[in-house]
Amino acid sequence: MSLFSTMSLYALTVKQPSATQDAISGDFLGNGKQQILTANGSRLAILEVSRRQKGFQEIYSQDVFGIIRRIAKFRLAGGTKDFIVITTDSGRLVTYEYMPEEHQFRTIHFETFGKSGIRRVVPGEYLAVDPKGRAIMVASTEKNKLVYILTRSGQTRIAISSPLEAHKPMTLVYCLIGLDVGYDNPMFAALELDYSNAEADPTGEAYHELKKELVYYELDLGLNHIVRKWSEPVDRTAHALFRVPGGPNAPSGVLCCGEDNISYRRIFNKSSSVHRLAIPRREGATEDPNRKRIIVTGTLYTLKGGEFFYLLQTDDGDVFKLTVDVRSAVVWNIKIKYFDTIPIATSICILRAGFVYAACESGDRVLYELESLGEETEDPVFESTQFPVDPLADYAPPFFQPRSLVNLTPVETIPSLNPIMDMEVSNPAMEDAPQVYTVNGAGGRSSFRTTRNALEVLDLIESPLPQTASHVWTTKLTVEDETDTLIILCLHSRTLVLKIGDDVEEASNTGFMAETNTLGVQQFGEDCVIQIHPKGIRHIQGIQFPDGDAAAVNVSLTDWHPPAHRTIVACATNNRQVAIALSSGQILYFECDSDGSLAMAEEEVILDSTINCLAIPDVPEGSVRAIFMAVGCSDQTVRIYNLSPDMEGNILRSISVQGLSSPPSGLTINYMSDKSPRGYSQYLHIGLRSGVYIRSALDEMTGDIGDTRRRFLGPEPITFARVNAAGEPAVLAMTSRPWLAYTHPRTAVLQLTPVNYIPFKSAWNFEGSAFKGIICVSASELRIFTFNDLHDNTTYEAIALKYTPRKLVGNHELGVFYVIESENNTMSAGTRKGLIDQSRAQENGVDGTMNPEQTNGDMLNGHGADELPPAEFGYPRAQGRWASCIQVVDPVSEKAVVHTVELEENKSAVSAAMVYFESRPEDICLAVGTAKDLRFTPYKYSTASIQLYKISPNGRELELLHETEVPEPPLALLAFKGKLIAGIGSDLALYDCGMRSLLRKAMTPNCVPTRITGLKTQGSRLVVSDQAQSVTYVVHKDQVHPNRLIPFADDTVARHTTCTDMLDYETTVGGDKFGNIWLVRCPAKVSEASDESPDGLNLLQDKGYLGGTANRLDLVSHYFANDIPVAIQRTILLSGGERVIFWAGLQGTLGALIPFSSRRQHKMFQQLELQLRIDDTPLSGRDHLAFRSYFTPIKSFIDGDLIERFLVLSRDKRESIVGHLTGNWTSEMVDEAIWNMRGLYAF
Amino acid sequence: MADKLRAQQQLEALQARYIGIGSADTTKHEWTSNIARDSLSSYIGHPPMLQYMSIGLGQPREKTRVQLLERMIQPVGPPPKVSWDIRRA
What we know:
The complex is a heterodimer.
Chain A: E1 9-15, E2 20-26, E3 35-40, E4 43-50, E5 55-63, E6 70-74, E7 83-87, E8 92-99, E9 104-112, E10 126-129, E11 135-139, E12 145-153, E13 157-160, E14 164-165, E15 171-178, E16 187-194, H1 196-199, H2 205-209, E17 212-220, E18 225-234, E19 240-243, E20 254-258, E21 261-265, E22 275-277, E23 281-282, E24 295-302, E25 308-314, E26 318-327, E27 330-341, E28 345-350, E29 355-360, E30 365-370, E31 381-383, E32 399-400, E33 408-414, E34 420-426, E35 435-440, E36 447-453, E37 457-464, E38 469-475, E39 486-491, E40 494-500, E41 504-506, E42 520-524, E43 528-533, E44 536-541, E45 556-560, E46 568-573, E47 577-582, E48 586-592, E49 598-600, E50 605-606, E51 611-615, E52 628-633, E53 637-642, E54 654-659, E55 664-673, E56 680-688, E57 692-698, E58 705-712, E59 719-725, E60 728-734, E61 738-743, E62 750-754, E63 762-767, E64 772-778, E65 781-787, E66 794-800, E67 805-811, E68 816-826, H3 829-843, H4 852-855, H5 870-873, E69 877-890, E70 896-903, E71 907-915, E72 924-932, E73 944-951, E74 958-966, E75 970-976, ...
Parallel strand pairs in A: 1-91, 23-32, 82-86
Antiparallel strand pairs in A: 1-90, 2-3, 3-4, 4-5, 6-7, 7-8, 8-9, 10-11, 11-12, 12-13, 12-14, 15-16, 16-17, 17-18, 19-20, 20-21, 21-22, 24-25, 25-26, 26-27, 27-31, 28-29, 29-30, 30-33, 34-35, 35-36, 36-66, 37-65, 38-39, 39-40, 40-41, 42-43, 43-44, 44-45, 46-47, 47-48, 48-49, 48-50, 51-52, 52-53, ...
Chain B: H1 2-17, H2 28-45, H3 47-57, H4 61-73, H5 84-88
Helix pairs in contact in B: 2-4, 3-4
């Protein structure tokens, strides 16, 4: 019996999660500038914002393999650099220093304080740092608080004390900050609630009398202990604290924020010195004037000279500027003024360079430029003198008018898929590789996104040509020229020469042979240019454009002709060498003479087969010639010849031969950066006629070929162009579409990515005086483009949606998608319109009756009556109301939403499926499950129904056929055997289409324990997912009347299933709400038995086992992904690639699970993973194995993200790890195996 | 006898250190409250879970966080009335 499991998967993250948990600004590099540190999922990243580049640059990012909960920074007195402290689920406090030279985080402290995992009493939920960097406090949601003291010992070492405890049982913590007290003893402020009284009171009265307290903890540095110094009751709704600057001439204290309440409180406060503000409310026809706001996030910013202000954001997204009136270190007054409205953020960072970074809760993260500090705007200012200190006392609520941005200007966005609500991989655009379609975002910022594996290009020039061109070259005139002067185009049996000047014009009298095809152009020797054409080589010396116009002078021409009856078929050139291949199979070789003329070598190569292509690298710096020439022959070989004399003084000797799977169609040799000690090596690129690309290292001394990477790029022969991409040497491979082969800037491994551009057949590097880029010809157009950034290998296209998308249904033949969207606690479109119309009418004096409760009409002014654009301002809220719609999106041709159906009467769409009914063969229908007055906790609704829409023949219109009421909301719908199967609560029901309603054909009551949330099918089998109880396998028996739906197998573990897909008839892959991915399989015998009898009597007679079905599923594999999978699919990702499991996570993760095909490889990866766990322990202090086994032990999975850490390790560490592997692996072979796992299956 | 005492002391030490460690006298209310509080703090502590719930409720994460914390105060209602004779027993 084998000890190996039958299946093993390689889990690879294709796109990192982009949901920001926390972001802070600080100087982590120690260079006097500010950077942003963000924590996304389990990844820490440092971003730099520079005014010069007008945007972001990711300096460093690393996976810590732990759930990051909070991040903070500290700087010890006299330091020049901020250190990072994070809390994760590791039960450890870990602090880092970022080392800019080594490009890594260096762990400073590593203090274990509790159990791992996210638990109620293990500190880590809150993290606060003394502003002077003397102490760190970590707290849990309940009871526990620990304080660490930091001291400097010696010049560089930072010592940390053992923790001091400040526990208080039965006390919940809402917020924790470090107070600014200058150099007094460090103080921390916490919002606490002691619930012990309510715990002992059966009447329930004590619960209402609980007080929330603001508690100050003082760390006595002299006595080395922590005391609960002072506490005072605050508003019961308070939940956030902000630090007020302290020290000499500054007031110190806190801002305590609650519902409709921002109060300033001094340390050891007297109640008289509290200053309170109410949070201004929006004015407008659709706004409820009685709704109170809360502050969701904010930031303090201190100006030079000690002045400070806050930017505080409400739950609507409105940002307010709060200023404090301080007179001799005493607060007299606090003021609040509307600043601008930006999307709701988890963190706002203000940078000294004048930027504001908003890490948005949903959608793209935005960088704003601070235009002004909001002093000039005419928005009303509210002062604390206007409001009573007690929030329960009466006061006139403040109002303001939201408006578009004035003080901020958006500069750049970082595209972010977060949150993904549903995903589908398909290829309606009929491209080479399928695209990833996702519905993202929440509220007004929802979008439909198409993600492709492609490099974004910047289009520079596009100009028409008189005729279709087949090839393009650019050339300098002399070797000293910095920029290219000529563009040579090969038209159909004609050559056109263009000169680049102020504008591009046709050059005359250049000496180029016009009435021929051109095979190659090269700047040769000092001041010559050669043109190679089928009938010979033209050598042109001294082209000059003396007057700056397009007519050249001083041209001396020399022609070389090949032997009679032979033509030139291929050529390779550099500045000093030329090789040509003749139709007879001869290769002739020339070098540059002292006078710049061509000197033919006496030796020549004669081959039996035809020669397809030649390649000579550029002359290496400091040499007179390149050493090797590569020849691609039609006998499916590439041969290497030497061009510099060997020991015996011979040239053109065959050095090595490489056999190929298909005749080569393109060859090139260049230097590319890599991980070698020198930083770059010589590489031979081979393109095959079959569309396979091969890159091998070509040893500079011996000419040996090694370290090979292969990949299929497209179904057409490949040709190459050597180019510069973002300052790095790269190769453009042209097949059915262009690809770029480049070195990844971070991992320094070869990356192959398609270029997001039209297909073209010829390209060349272009270096102009104004810009550098790549010139290409496509049909009769000449284009120049350039690459800006090689970090991101995906491109996005976004289409705005109306509300939070819930489900995506693809109609692939017609290239459209149906998206159901719903928005909780939001006013529906009809109500909004009604209110706006009403207020307009009032304003115009048509309708005299005022209804202040609804419209707040007396405060309206001119533009208040218009609806605010929801993408910026969100939708008006209304408790218990739903806004919902169905949208038809065309991402292929129109790239827009083409049709919208709003749902009325407080209905919300909960599920959708495209169905072909056997009884209605002429139409395709869209079934949409709806629920009316839906509420959660507790789950309530008034009615539920299935709406059936007829899809028009072009797929773009929906027409309601009928609506069928069902007893519970149908959370899952699926087309099944020409009918519709629906999960109605816990019942599974089969429907056929009737004239006026759906007709129930079969039903299994209580098919699953909780609620059916998903359905998948193959043949007669259905996989039914339950909200909390994993999946149940159900078989449909249609030979009996009424039809039977019989559950026959279910799971042993209660998985809160979010998504599933059937991998084969027995196996299901799924994800759950806790971030796990799992595979379950039905035992073969059970599976066979389920399909045996036509009526399923044997299944009905089986006795249920332990309250479930008679049989149980087996767990095949299990993995913790730290992101909630929302969609999972078995699909191919690349053209010519193998099938993988592709999944999308809520926080914006895209991941692939790749099955291993070779046991030898699997064994190596297993050993490598084991070794990396030991030698490269996760940064968070979390044990990697324990992290991936967070809820259930990991099974049959290999973490590709950990494996890929191998690529960035130092050379000696790599070698020591490889030394532990059994089976003669070298680090190059391991590199290749890792590369193949990503390159051949995913991107 | 000494072992028993020692075990008792160890249990008490653990009960003081970790909340939720039960004893023979743990009531149903205490037990269910503990489970509910553990769950709620787990929802708050796992960022994807908090986001998942916030999207469902259509509100910012901070608001959901505060709502869940509020529910931790008394997650399963007030404790049952303790009748006199039970206390004696």
